[in-house]
Amino acid sequence: MKHTYHIQGMTCNGCRSHVEETLSKVKGVLNVEVDLEKSEAIIVMDSHIPIDTFQKVLIDDGGTYSIHNLGEDFKLKDTDEEIPAYAGILKHTYSIEGMTCNGCRSHVEKTLSNVEGVSSASVNLEKKEATIEMENHIPLEKFQKALKDDGGTYSIYNLGEVPHKSHTYSIEGMTCDGCRSHVEKALSNVEGVSSASVNLEKKEATIEMENHIPLEKFQEVLKDDGGTYSIYNLGEAPDPSEIKKEKPPKGVGTGVFYCPMHCEGDKTYDKPGDCPVCGMDLVEEQNLSAIASEQWTCPMHPEVVQDEAGSCPICGMDLVPMEPDLSSEEKTYRKLLKKFWIAMAFTLPIFIIAMSEMLMTNPLYDIMEQKSWNWVQFALSIPVVFYATWMFFERAYRSIKTWNLNMFTLIGIGAGVAWLFSVVALFFPDVFPDQFRSDSGAVHVYFEAATVILTLVLLGQLLEARAHSKTNSAVKELLKLAPNKAVKMEDGEEVVVSIDKIELGDILKVKPGDKIPVDGVITEGESSIDESMFTGEPIPVSKSIDDKVSSGTINGNQTFLMKAEKVGSDTLLSQIIHMVNDASRSRAPIQNLADKISGYFVPVVVIISVITFAVWAIWGPEPAYVYALVNGIAVLIIACPCALGLATPMSVMVGVGKGAQNGVLIKNAEALERMDKVDVLIIDKTGTITEGKPTVEKIGSFKPEFPDKKVLDYIVSLNSNSEHPLADATVKYGKEQKADPEASGLKSEAFSAVTGKGVEATINNQKVALGNPKMMEHANAEISSEMENEAKSFQQQGKTVSYLAIDKVVVGYVVIGDKIKPTSAKAIKELQERGIEVIMLTGDNHNTAQAVATELHLTDFKASMLPEDKLKEVEKLQKQGKVVAMAGDGINDAPALAKSDVGIAMGTGTDVAIESAMITLVKGDLHGIVKARKLSHAVMKNIKQNLFFALVYNTLGVPIAAGVLFPVFGILLSPMIAALAMSFSSVSVIGNALRLRAAKI
Fold first, then answer.
1. Nearest-CA neighbor of 648 among 952, 943, 951, 266?
2. 75 falls in which pLDDT band (50, 70, 90)?
3. Annotation says 684 is catalytic
4. Is 794 helix (H, G, I), strand (E, B) or coil?
């Protein structure tokens, strides 16, 4: 689609170029050509963009230029003078299909010119284009109708649109290949659609149609399909971050449900039920609020609910704590338990009746004959089939209807065939051959097989529900850490308040043994804090004034005051819980293997079952059909695709929780898988190897007119605007030395930080710079050899030296020391022993870097590295085929963290670094990387075990159920035994995953 507009405000070629560039950035614009002489812009777009969009872009750009439709009257900026309508009027260019000669061109031109409102139409045969001038905008459909009414030989389209009426739209709501397939099918079924192709990665649907179908038609179809997916014109899809989300309700869960096997990726549901793909019970997302406000109610008047203890305003009785709501998992468990006992109550008599037939003298036949007992079994089976386990048949029916074949497909077919066979045998016994009859003449029924199979599957679901609740126990344990009350200081008085009433800046008192209510800083007193729930380290950490404390950690034996700095969902505890929850629901790449196998699993099993029936019916011993039926059902029942599907997500969920309890926060499952393959670790120095708490050790001067005190005044004045740790150290040192730059008239202006080099500002009209040698180069200040030698003596001790330059002259320096963390050497050694090459990249100078590398026995390091240098080093190693992990804590590390295969952020670092990383170490300690490596190895090993068990189980179980051992050993597998084995296969996978809770990292 090509539109021509008038541009006002251009005066030169620079204006033309600027307008062209500005309009080109509008989403959906394919090309822009601006003509300075004509004051026109020709804009090619993939779909119609309102002129208001272009007008807003130019206004936001400063309002110097404005855009208007050709022929539109408008006013000059800042005047009331009207500009007359432009002579060119509205002009559109379209594609024309069907022309073969000049006669065709002339005919199309004439037809389009006759459309009401068209001033003129010009058709180009070679370009297959028509340029139409019109007084007002005419919809394309009007021209299409004119050409169709003319015989339909020719057709008209927007520029760039394919002639077979192919439209591309944006699709929102898809999370997996199942979604893609479902949307593709739904759109293909719309009347008039020739074909629909959906791209999951691009979130786009390309639809070919016989005639134009309005977008609203597709939107209506997807809405009627459940509203999970939505369709928009390209460029019009809403930003997911702008979609308003309802706040999760308070209580045990959030009211958001998801499939434990993540069949549809991150897709969630707003009510309980079962997964439409695998049929398993949906799991409720844990309420991630770390605020566990306790509520109180009156035993006589339950409508009275208060946030704190007291007396009932109606009857005066003391309020009692409210019973907590049951979690969705507990409700599911109790519902399944009730159904299981009902199923057991009716299945057990059926089983006893059926098994009594194996006795030589059956006492039951003294009461009634076999036919009558068959009717009793039928009656007893009805509550089992139509109440206790009916959900299995519903899931089976839905799976076949949607062709999302799963475990319940096999159970429904297997148990359903057994039960229906028995019902037909009971009501119409004459249709069966003699080999199905017993000695009494009654047809043998399989009510006991059907009900026992269903009851055992129900038992498996029951055990699975109980086991699954333990997999996210880490989140639940973290939630328990959050206190629900705090002591707030108000006018010197202690007031007990609910934790959700705390605001930023409040002063709180923390007594011995209390949990710290929110994140903050100690303002008075000191104590030792147990932070083991975050770091996994049992030794309490000493804290004093200005030290930070975190919500959920436990105070030692001294009282202190603290100021609230982060409350509610901003606390470290809440962030950890959110990260753990999100990571536990993410998919690891290895899961794709299981998904691929599962996609073929059920159809293959059904085919094997049919083949089993046929082989036994043709070549089996008498009664051949009985053997064929029983073995065919056994094959269906023993197969379990769920064991495959659960293998990865269960291990990930438990592993991520285990990591959180040890101070290793995993952003997603992919990070776990990648971490196990890492062979190169890049580490920063400051804040990663070192403590990140630099201290000033010396201020020095190179010029007599700038004594040490004056150098310090300049440094403090310059650094007072910086947030860098080194700057904080100098400002803090200045306060200790009673430096007062303002009293000396040294006030910095026009401050700026030069990433990876240093800082600069203007002080008393002098250009002042502070930083490393590269900063001095930037400031055109020369460092003499004498200066270098003096600095080198400190650098060789592992100290950092920053130079101070005033008006391009180096006048002094500051020496800053940063202790190496006690655990750094041990952690690096252990990583090297595990086959990981450790490389240190630092922005510090070579001498300082070498001193640190020597102390830590590092074989490789690089100094004077800017952020872009670190990024290039990561890329270089990746090109060599290395799997690279990067650990850092600063903004300058963020690009390399994002580019590396596994970014590891120190929890003591900046939010930017943490956001860029896949793994965060709460304690900010290199030993956390060792833990992360051990954890990833344990999780991947556990996943492979699960996949192996699931595959071997099905590989061996299906042939045994089919009867391959019968010719040699005479062994057949009863469908009931098959059901028992199948039910416990998923439970065994979950049980194996739960072993990770005891893993030592």
1. 943
2. very low
3. yes
4. helix
Q: Which long-range contacts (CB under 8 A, 24 or more apart) does 741-750 make?
A: 741/713, 741/714, 741/716, 741/717, 742/717, 744/710, 744/713, 746/713, 746/714, 746/717, 747/717, 748/717, 748/718, 748/720, 748/721
- Which residues make Cβ contacts (< 8 Å) with residue 754, sequence separation at least 6? 760, 771, 775, 778
Q: How far apart are CA 784 and CA 801, in angstroms?
A: 15
Task: Please compute the mean of the pLDDT values over residues 15-19 and round it to a whole number.
Answer: 81
Average pLDDT over residues 862-868: 82
Q: 938 with 1001: CB under 8 angstroms?
A: yes
Please say whether the beta carbons of 648 and 993 come within 8 A.
no
Sign of CA dihedral 496, 499, 505, 509: positive
Angle at which helices 591-619 and 624-638 pack, to 10 degrees? Answer: 170
Among all chains, which residue has been given the structure tokens 């740790």?
Answer: 725
Query: What's the gap between Cα 411 and its chain centre?
Result: 33
101 alpha-carbon distance from chain centroid: 57
Instruction: Note the pLDDT tens digit of each residue in 690-702.
Output: 876 788 988 999 8
Query: Out of 71-75, 347-351, 381-385, 804-808, which region has the weakest mean confidence (pLDDT)?
Result: 71-75
Active-site residue, selected from the candidate residues 506, 519, 684, 925:
684
Confidence band for 492, pLDDT divided at 50, 70 and 90 = confident
Please report, for residues 214, 733, 875, the alpha-carbon distance to residue 141 in angstroms, rounded to integers and kept in the order given.
11, 75, 52
Q: Kindly report the three-state secondary structure assignment for every residue of 552-581.
A: CCEECCCCEEEEEEECHHHCHHHHHHHHHH
Q: How many helices (H) and strands (E) does the chain have?
A: 30, 41
Helix (H, G, I), strand (E, B) or coil at 456: helix
Structure tokens at 869: 């240098």
In this predicted structure, the answer to whether residue 290 has a pLDDT above a threshold of 50 is no
Sign of CA dihedral 112, 114, 116, 118: positive
Beta strand pairing status for 902-906 and 919-921? parallel
Q: In sequence order, which residues have a C-beta less than 8 Å from that of residue 911 and are 6 or more positions away?
A: none
Query: For 886-904, what is each residue's pLDDT tens digit?
Result: 987 655 667 788 788 898 8
Q: What is the pLDDT of residue 81?
A: 41
